[in-house]
Automatic annotation (TrEMBL):
InterPro entries: RNA3'_phos_cyclase_dom (IPR023797), RNA3'_phos_cyclase_dom_sf (IPR037136), RNA3'_term_phos_cyc (IPR000228), RNA3'P_cycl/enolpyr_Trfase_a/b (IPR013792), RPTC_insert (IPR036553). Pfam families: RTC. This is RNA 3'-terminal phosphate cyclase domain-containing protein. One of its GO terms (biological process) is RNA processing. Residues 9-194 form the RNA 3'-terminal phosphate cyclase domain. PANTHER family: RNA 3' TERMINAL PHOSPHATE CYCLASE, RNA 3'-TERMINAL PHOSPHATE CYCLASE. It comes from marine sediment metagenome. GO terms for molecular function: RNA-3'-phosphate cyclase activity.
């Protein structure tokens, strides 16, 4: 059995997600100790529990220590990752995309196609946005031989959550190929993006984010096409901006920023543009 000390390096929940995901792929037992020991609120939170239980369900495994605040967790995966349709609710604004990212590796080696419907947060700080996963990560992983698509059914923001994504994964045809990217810097051939806001159309938040970002990129000779979306289905007001650049050799480079209290539309637009230009 592998034992992993969750207090090492960043001491974050990423250690939990990655360890359990790879254990499910390999079919090996793993014990996690000192979970999130470096965090102000150590131990398992709702999003980590939801991810662990989802992986156990997906591969017919078992968990010991899966409770809120637990600092130790034992995961015994079964030998087969089972395809099918699954639905999970994180129960908070915890990142649905990070949970989906943990489910993706074993789903690539399932015995049948998988479809996951996950409810939680989609756009927030310190987590990959749903736009990034949909338009940067999954297309990049496709070059390795994965077959996955992400649909955004409803936006979700901090602190309410309530966003919904659907991840569809086809089993890989064989072993995944290494991802080899050229070391040389390639020129950008196209820039696109999405400016999304929920319940904020009167304040023109989507338009302001898009226009600020586009103006800064234009100064560097880039001509982005940023789609403006106004949503009324989310459980609360919120916003997010994502920009994706495609290079001449096919690489995808993303930058994004979620809205937050006292974070203006213009500040979001500037941050994303500056990140893309860096």
């Amino acid at each position: 059995m592998l034992e992993i000390d969750g207090s090492q390096k960043s001491g974050s929940g990423t250690i939990v997600r990655v360890a359990l995901s790879l254990a499910a792929v390999l079919g090996k037992e793993v014990r996690l100790v000192n979970i999130r020991a470096r965090r102000p609120n150590p131990g398992l939170r709702r999003q980590h529990l939801a991810g662990a239980r989802a992986l156990a369900e997906l591969c017919g495994g078992s968990l010991v220590g899966d409770s809120l605040g637990s600092r130790e967790l034992l995961f015994r995966p079964a030998d087969t990752v089972r395809g099918g349709s699954y639905r999970w609710d994180i129960g908070s604004a915890g990142s649905a995309t990070m949970m989906a990212a943990g489910l993706l590796p074993p789903a690539c080696f399932a015995d049948a196609p998988c479809r996951f419907r996950i409810q939680g947060g989609l756009f927030q700080d310190f987590a990959p946005s749903a736009f990034h996963m949909q338009q940067v990560l999954l297309p990049t992983l496709a070059r390795m031989g994965t077959h996955a698509e992400l649909g955004i059914q409803r936006p979700g923001y901090v602190p309410t959550g309530g966003g919904v994504i659907e991840l569809a994964v086809e089993p890989a045809d064989g072993p995944l190929a290494p991802l080899v990217l050229p070391q040389r810097r390639a020129s950008v051939k196209a820039v696109r993006g999405v400016a999304l806001s929920s319940h904020l159309e009167e304040r023109q938040v989507s338009r302001r984010m898009a226009e600020t970002c586009a103006a800064l990129l234009a100064r560097r000779g880039l001509r982005p096409h940023i789609e403006v979306r106004n949503d009324s289905t989310a459980a609360q007001a919120g916003a997010a901006l994502a920009v994706i650049a495609e290079t001449e050799d096919g690489r995808l480079l993303g930058a994004d920023r979620a809205g937050a209290p006292r974070r203006t539309s213009e500040a979001i637009g500037r941050t994303v543009a500056q990140a893309r230009l860096a």
